[in-house]
Design brief:
Layout (H helix, E strand, L loop, with lengths): L4 E7 L5 H13 L3 E7 L13 E7 L7 H8 L10 E9 L7 H10 L3 H10 L3 E2 L4 E5 L10 H10 L4
Helix pairs in contact: 1-5
The structure holds flavin mononucleotide (FMN).
Length: 161
């Protein structure tokens, strides 16, 4: 009998939207292995080693992940994620919903939280399972756009392929 895959989804969240996305991913992965979900402040760097799959998500804030998210990844040793399949996600406001044109231009230029998270996961030795992905809220405090939780569950499941 093969061991069940060890899967961890780490998230940060201010208004609860990224948390909902992380939980939908956990539910989507329940048939694929032992999937758990944990807020970034409750995770110690040592918990990230020895996993089969690690998904890390943050709200996009000023084009970046939260400090707590990057602090956790920065605290990992150089090859701390060796042998771990990794992927990053964020929540964000869709460009078509950003009203001031200057801000829309800045969003295109500076991007979203999942990109730097993904780069750091790979820098720490992780094996990239999926390209970074974003899930959209209708406004800063939410709610998520229709269908995003289903899309998040499907995205997470595709990390197992
Ligand atoms: C201070 C602040 C900065 C934000 N910056 C961005 C941004 O640069 N790009 C973007 O798409 N959304 C931005 N947002 C919207 C957030 O992405 C949104 O609040 C987040 O997805 C909600 O997730 P949460 O409920 O997990 O906190 C910002 C929101 C706040 C409050």
């Amino acid at each position: 009998m093969t061991a069940r895959a060890k899967i961890l989804i780490v998230y940060d969240s201010f208004f609860g939207n990224t948390e909902k996305v992380a939980r939908a991913m956990r539910d989507g992965l329940a048939t694929e292995g032992d999937a758990s979900v944990c807020r970034v402040n409750d995770v110690k760097p040592e918990q990230l080693a020895g996993l089969d799959v690690l998904l890390v998500g943050s709200p996009t804030r000023a084009f970046r992940p939260t400090k707590a998210t990057m602090d956790l990844l920065n605290a990992l040793p150089g090859s701390g994620l060796k042998g771990v399949r990794v992927a990053a996600f964020d929540t964000r406001i869709a460009p078509e919903d950003v009203k001031p044109r200057l801000l829309r231009w800045m969003v295109k230029l500076f991007g979203y939280a999942s990109e730097p998270i993904s780069k750091r996961l790979v820098k720490k030795g992780g094996e990239l399972a999926l390209t970074p992905e974003g899930f959209c809220v209708m406004d800063s405090e939410g709610p998520l756009k229709d269908g995003e939780l289903e899309r998040a569950a499907a995205w997470a499941r595709s990390a197992m392929k």
